Amino acid sequence: MMQPRWTDESAQEYLRGIIRIVNGQSRYQRPLARELIGKAFGRGVTEIWDMTCGLGVDAWTLCRLGYRVRSFERNPFLFDCLLKAKQEADNDPSWRPISARWTITLGDSFFYLAQETTPPEACYLDPMFVFTKNPTALPKKEMQALRFLLRHDEGNHFSVEEKLSQALDRVQKRVVLKWHRHLPGLKRSPNQIIDGNRIMFLIFFP
Ligand SMILES: C[S@@+](CC[C@H](N)C(=O)[O-])C[C@H]1O[C@@H](n2cnc3c(N)ncnc32)[C@H](O)[C@@H]1O
User: Fold this and answer.
1) Separation of 90 CA from ligand 1 center, angstroms?
2) Structure pTM?
């Protein structure tokens, strides 16, 4: 398979086209019964800080599952797309009850976490993964575009261990980390694992 030759313009155009909730792509409307992310947060949590919003797919799924979600995205272009997608949902009576549970903030989530006087019940971390099991295998098109767009963003090459420990220092009940089967283990063992075929959710208690 040929890798598309991304430019900033083509990556932005592609991502602008897919970050659409109303009349958008199926990734925002997947059947909830198959979503393992809900199992990872469980019933003891009502409010989640989504520390790495990206395309907002996981955030929207969590809102559909009934959680209140505060998302953070540090990239201004993605933030604008997310805000527009949310505004469209806010203006649509069938989606408004769900979008009312979602707020999106531009900036570094860990900066906000450090400042917050009432720490969140739960944090969700979905870092950008830079390596795959088969280095020649291409990631999905949206991840290619996202990686290209964020290629100069040093902040994305954060240490997962470090951010996990920062989140655990502040969170009240749990941190959920999206992990891939082929990625190496972490120094800290998770308290629970929700295991999908390819994706796992690692759950850590403070
Ligand atoms: C892999 S994507 C997340 C995908 C997301 N879970 C979804 O469902 O679309 C990671 C995103 O987190 C953002 N990000 C990374 N570190 C961040 C931070 N400290 N604060 C806010 N956003 C961050 C990146 O800009 C990127 O868009």
Assistant:
1) 22
2) 0.94
